[in-house]
Specification:
The protein has 94 residues and is an alpha+beta fold. It has helices at 42-52, 56-67, 71-74, 85-93, and strands at residues 2-5, 12-18, 24-30. The chain has four helices and three strands; from the N terminus they run βββαααα. Helix 2 packs antiparallel against helix 4.
Length: 94
């Protein structure tokens, strides 16, 4: 049986399964809101994705990296120069 749990962050699809010996277990699959503009930079897109899906820990970590100018050494696969640092920090704070 499958259902959607709106109480989790992010929202999750829950599949109820059983082991071969009959013991029940659940598989949680996150459902992310992705109705985000596609013309954003990589960091702007990440900030929007984290914000719309209530991923506060990730937003806090990204905020700290941007504030301390540590993003190039800490964020995987980030190769772009940050010219609008204040704009990105404002996006996180809103």
């Amino acid at each position: 049986m499958e259902n959607i749990d709106f109480e989790t962050n992010p929202i999750c699809k829950i599949e109820e399964k059983k082991f071969d010996w009959g013991e029940p277990y659940n598989i949680y699959t996150p459902i992310f809101k992705t109705n985000i503009e596609h013309n954003l930079s990589l960091l702007e897109f990440s900030i929007e994705l984290f914000g719309k899906n209530n991923l506060k820990k990730q937003l806090t970590l990204l905020h700290n990296k941007l504030t301390n100018h540590e993003e190039l050494s800490s964020v995987e696969n980030l190769n772009e120069e940050i010219f609008n640092r204040e704009h990105l920090i404002d996006l996180i704070n809103t």
